[in-house]
Design brief:
The complex is a heterodimer.
Chain A: H1 7-16, H2 24-28, E1 36-39, E2 42-43, E3 46-47, H3 49-61, E4 65-71, H4 78-83, E5 88-95, H5 104-118, E6 122-126, H6 129-141, E7 147-150, E8 152-155, E9 158-163, E10 168-174, E11 179-183, E12 199-202, E13 213-219, E14 232-236, H7 243-257, E15 260-263, H8 265-269, E16 290-294, H9 300-306, E17 311-316, H10 323-326, E18 329-332, H11 335-353
Chain B: E1 5-10, E2 13-18, E3 55-56, E4 63-64, E5 68-72, H1 74-88, E6 96-105, H2 109-118, E7 123-128, E8 136-137, H3 142-156, E9 160-164, H4 175-183, E10 186-196, E11 202-209, E12 212-219, E13 222-226, H5 238-244, E14 249-253, E15 265-271, E16 280-282, H6 285-294
Parallel strand pairs in B: 1-6, 1-9, 6-7, 7-14, 9-13, 10-13
Antiparallel strand pairs in B: 2-5, 3-4, 4-8, 10-11, 11-12
Helix pairs in contact in B: 2-5, 3-4
Classes of the chains: A alpha/beta, B alpha/beta.
Subcellular location (chain B): Mitochondrion matrix
Family (chain B): Belongs to the ETF beta-subunit/FixA family.
Pfam families (chain B): ETF (PF01012)
Chain lengths: 354, 298
């Protein structure tokens, strides 16, 4: 396997010294033992897809992996699901609806207490809105410098991450006793979510109050695959001109391919698509099997969010658009003609195959 | 003025591109603005890509920014504008008594602080940190910046901090959350709307989250990080730039806050990302479909 340290030896020594991590003894001779806490998100009793990547990254480190869930019904609900994920040894569950909304004011003290008690050497979360919000706060409270948006793990203290909108790749070595990091979901392939048999135990609950109250949310509901984890993404840009055209042109194409819909910053700014669909440096990172974009020029910030896609296809009327420099296949033409034609032909192709 | 807003806006300069053949911000790309051409603030960074890609230093341990022009981090412009917007808002139940801009870095940091002063800050603080190696990008770590800002907040009795959600060079996206954690304050990250609701300092913030937005309510003091949708930053006008020259910039050092430049993360190497080779162009939709089939994408 890809483990970076010897998991067998580590596990064996953990069994020899079960209190490793909390006893003063562990601080000296066993301080190099790895033990990773993966902070997991869930909604409606289901583990978030991006959190499976956090588990995958935790497994890659090589030490035992503990999953962490908190919220109402966490122990009887999502914890049982996490327990089945291959590679997770323990699930720490905290039952308290105060954590349902993931407010960092109370979630961070909760994590601090559990990290201290568990003696974890590594703490990982997905680089999602929740992970980005909570993990740096926790790290600061424990006087550590976290590493954001990790795309590769090169050793127990060495991490790779993109900087300058993905135009440079930085490898850093953390000297902190506890390594905090968030991972890019598309860089760590989740393993099997069945076959595991982790033990579920109660985490500690400091019940720190939150000065912030959650008022409301407005989430775009969609039957489509989640943008960050979709196998196929179709994405539209400024060239679509209006929300009506965006919906009229892109939605049937997405339907034909079973794809998620993304958008460039220009399309989002002109209200053609919801903010949450933005792909790019300051939006979502995607790396699907197929990224098919129309009316997107390929600005550097947009490329930052999609250039790890396996196959990139572009339709654009400007033959000199930068997108063609990265696209595996490009079609120069008017998207208002080409995309509907493509949609029809894809539908027919699927019908003939049936 | 117990019920006034004392706002801190940390600003950061970042390498924004080369000066070669360029005539200044306004001629350049508007990819970072709200899409409007009037009153927006324009950056060199996005469109003229050739001169803008950071060059990797020969030793592969740093990013060479020699000759690159420096500009204010775009998210920090949003923070400045939001502070200015709160001041302009006559309906706001709390008045803004002070906007302090702070930045850490070498001598050129003064330029970005002048811009901040022209955009609405009353005064500025320059934490002098020598440029580690002239022409090379390094920068303080977010943990150090957060500790420094905590010192500023406490010294200046700040009750609201607006930070950008991330700096577009380091792309960490951590400082605001770390500052809130160190202070034990409320935090609202990736804000797209901020409303001060009453004299007691109740603040409602709408944040951009995965899949949509959520709205939170909290009480001052708090830390807010700004997202692109929060506002459209104004262009610093010439009269304001002139006035900014008269505004005070206080000097400080990291040692004043009991800090130094030591790092927790050692740079092992900086490399070029794998370059993607563009493929071929096809003539028509049928060609597109068959190529995608060949590539195994369909």
């Amino acid at each position: 396997m890809n483990s970076l340290v010897r998991p067998c030896a580590l596990r064996a020594s953990r069994h020899l010294y079960p209190s490793a991590g909390t006893s003063p003894f562990s601080r000296s001779s066993l301080s190099r033992l790895l033990s990773t806490l993966a902070i997991l998100e869930h909604r409606d009793g289901k583990i978030a897809g991006s959190s499976l990547s956090a588990i995958a990254a935790a497994i890659k480190l090589g030490g035992p992996v503990t999953g962490f869930v908190a919220g109402k019904g966490a122990k009887s609900g999502v914890a049982t699901e996490v327990a089945k994920v291959e590679g997770v040894e323990t699930v720490l569950a905290v039952e308290n609806e105060a954590y349902d909304k993931g407010l960092p004011e109370n979630y961070a003290p909760l994590l601090v207490e559990n990290i201290k008690k568990g003696g974890f050497t590594h703490v990982v979360a997905s680089h999602s809105a929740f992970g980005k919000n909570v993990l740096p706060r926790v790290a600061a409270m424990m006087d550590a410098q976290p590493v954001s948006d990790v795309t590769a793990i090169e050793g127990e203290d060495t991490f790779v991450r993109p900087i300058f909108a993905g135009n440079a790749v930085l490898t850093v070595q953390s000297t902190d006793p506890i390594k905090f990091f968030t991972v890019r979901g598309t860089a760590f392939q989740p393993g099997s979510s069945t076959g595991g048999s982790a033990q579920i135990t109660d985490g500690v609950d400091p019940a720190a109050p939150s000065a912030t109250t959650w008022v409301s949310e407005d989430l775009t509901t969609s039957e489509r695959p989640d943008l960050s984890t979709a196998e196929r993404v179709v994405s539209g840009g400024r060239g679509l001109k209006s929300k009506e055209e965006f919906d009229r042109i892109m939605t049937p194409l997405a339907d034909a391919l079973g794809a998620a819909i993304g958008a460039s910053r220009a399309a989002v700014d002109e209200k053609m698509a919801d903010n949450s669909l933005q792909v790019g440096q300051t939006g979502k990172n995607v790396a699907p099997q197929l990224y098919l974009c129309a009316g997107i020029s390929g600005a550097i910030q947009h490329l930052a969010g999609m250039k790890d896609s396996k196959v990139i296809a572009a339709i654009n009327k400007d033959p000199d658009a930068p997108i063609f420099q990265v696209a595996d296949v490009g079609l120069v033409g008017d998207l208002f003609e080409k995309v509907p034609e493509l949609t029809e032909k894809l539908k027919n192709a699927i019908l003939t195959e049936l | 003025m117990a019920n006034a807003l004392r706002i801190l806006v940390p600003v950061k300069r970042h390498p924004a591109g080369s000066d070669d053949g360029r005539k200044g911000d306004r001629l350049c790309s508007f990819a970072w603005t709200g899409g409007s051409l009037d009153g927006g603030y324009y950056y060199l960074w996005p469109l003229s890509q050739s001169g803008l890609k950071p060059r990797i230093g020969k030793t592969q341990t740093s990013v060479d920014i020699t000759g690159m022009r420096q500009a204010m981090n775009p998210f920090d412009e949003l923070s400045m504008e939001e502070a200015a917007r709160l001041r302009r808002d006559d309906q706001s139940p709390m008045k803004v008594s002070q906007v302090l801009a702070v930045s850490a870095g070498g001598p050129k940091t003064v330029d970005v602080l002048r811009t901040a002063l022209a955009l609405g800050a009353d005064r500025a603080m320059h934490v002098e940190v020598p440029d580690a190696k002239e022409g090379f990008y390094s920068g303080l770590e977010p943990l150090t910046v957060a500790k420094m800002l905590k010192g500023v907040v406490e010294k200046e009795k700040i009750n609201l901090v607006f930070l950008g959600k991330q700096a577009i060079d380091g792309d960490h996206g951590q400082t605001g959350q770390m500052l809130a954690g160190l202070l034990g304050w409320s935090q609202a990250t990736q804000a797209s709307k901020v409303t001060v609701k009453d004299e007691a300092g109740t603040v409602e913030v709408t944040r951009e989250v995965d899949g949509g937005v959520e709205t939170l309510e909290s009480k001052l003091p708090m830390v807010i990080t700004t997202d692109l949708r929060l506002n459209t930053p104004k262009f610093a006008t010439l009269p304001n730039l002139m006035k900014a020259k008269k505004k005070p910039i206080e000097k400080a050092t990291l040692a004043d806050f009991g800090l130094d430049e030591s790092r927790r993360l050692n740079t092992v190497k900086v490399t070029e990302p794998p370059t993607r080779q563009g493929g071929s162009k096809v003539e028509d939709v049928d060609g597109l479909i068959s190529k995608l089939k060949d590539l195994g994408a369909l």
